[in-house]
Amino acid sequence: MIRALVACALVLSCGEPAAPPVEESPSSIGPMDALARRFGRLRRRMRDRGYGNAQRLQRRFVLEGQGIALPLDLPAGECTTWLALAGGGLRDLRASLYDGDGYETASDDVRGEGALLHVCPPASETNPAPSTAPYYLELRALEGSGAVVLGAFSSPVGEGDGFDELFAGVVAPPVPFREVEDALVEVRDALRERGLVALGEPIFRRLAEGQGMRRPLELAGGRCYVVVARGGEGVEDVDLYLHDARGGEVARDLGPDAHPRLEHCPDQAHAATLEARAFQGSGAVGVIVLSGEPREHEPPPPERVEGAEPLAILGTRLEELEAKGAGTPIYLVQDASLSPGETRTHEVLLGPGCAYVVGAGGPGELDLDLYLVDAEGRSVDRDARVQRTARVGVCPPEPALYRVTVKAYGRGRYALARAPVPVARDVAELRLFGVRNPEPVEMQSSRLRLTEGQRTQLPMPPARCFEAIAGGMDAVADVDLRLRDEQGELLASDTGPAPWARVEHCADGNVRASVEVLLYRGQGEVEVQWRAY
């Protein structure tokens, strides 16, 4: 019911790009966290549109399914706009205004994290001067729980530029989850073929840029857990983190894309917390968790490093590549510092032809990751293996500018170099080059076209020793190799999270074997080379 009151309620989203905050929120709304900064953007927009400065700022916490009521006095003869913005896990905030007799005079029923009530009580005919009347503002959390920042804006009747696009870029748009749901169904079906079972239903949230969602997990020892996230339209970069009970990070995928994936195989049972965060863009994000038996894995050979300094480690790696046919390297960074969680980005000109960007970190067991993107920001290659060296590559037909992002876990320094690989004709051969032995040997070769989850077997003649290598094209993110005997028993495997793999095995006498190729993630062509000797 509306009783002698002009009222409107709006929640709007889309359009205007985000602007960095230029002023701090008052201490009355608590710390200068992400929620306060987002509300600061709304305050500036309201001021720029002619609604004045925010008044009566406050922060409250609202539990899912519950609400809070705030008594207030509204002046007659002028307009008051109440803005509320939710943070944390609160995804659907509703606002209603009641007069002193309990009648609803305005409401905001649009789904989302923001709420707006614009009311203009008329002045009395006998007393045109502004006076106040008692009202009650109710904030209710219909989905999720979290903090809410609330503020009022006063303006003369008829002034102000309206509220179109007010919440654009500040709250996640109310987009459907169908696109993300379909993507996760494909992931679940593909992983089910490999013996992985979904743990409960996927979770979906609408996230604004910088927002995240969390899910507690109880992990059993001796099993592997795969977490996959997908971002919908408007979401450009999603990051995944897995934390233990003390908050320590045990796994992550921070690649510059909206389809991250992480794997964790704990030896002992422990509690964990999964976090997915919209690093760039806003929209629907879905996450699914699956569990299964551990994949076969051979520990990598120890790194042959002469010295602990990054430049010395990098020099050893470049010598190994040159011994196999790489060209003269050019050093991009010789000694740069890197703090835990920090990222550094460098621009590098690559092409024409194939080339690697190789990185090394140190001293000690610094875990270095490299991510390569093109000038438009599209992901080209990544190396997120847990080790101190990393390499990414590309084969552009013409010279092109790329950006390589360096991330590290641990505090230390790093060095980078560019190494041309003229013997490689495409990305698959470039990835084969990285795992091939320095000594040239004659090998059989086959180019396979595989989809995600597809596997095939290539038989070998009887022999004492076997070797196989594989490398995928651009759209191949993870390829695995397994050597099996006639009975299907595993002889050797490489199931690391990389678009290349290498296996080798020697028996006491001649045996029959076959190499099993599994495209674990991605799709496209995979070059496989093998020999029996």
Task: Give an account of the 3D structure.
With 533 residues, the chain is mainly β. It contains four helices and 32 strands. The chain has a six-stranded antiparallel sheet with strand order 27-32-28-31-29-30. It has a five-stranded antiparallel sheet with strand order 1-7-4-9-2, covered by helices on one side. Strand 29 and strand 30 form a beta hairpin. The longest helix is centred in the first third of the chain and has 15 residues. It is elongated. The N terminus is likely disordered.
Strand count, sense and barrel status of the largest sheet are:
6 strands, antiparallel
User: What is the rounded Rg?
Assistant: 29 Å
Distance between the termini: 87 Å
Helix content percent band: under 10%
Q: Mean pLDDT, nearest integer?
A: 83
What portion of the residues fall into strands of 2 or more residues?
A: over 45%
Main sheet: which strands, in order across? 27-32-28-31-29-30
Name the shape in a single word: elongated
**Secondary structural class:** mainly beta
Count of discrete alpha- or pi-helical segments spanning 4 or more residues: 4
Detail the poorly predicted runs.
Answer: 1-27, 296-307
Care to count the β-strands?
Answer: 32
* Multimerization state: single chain
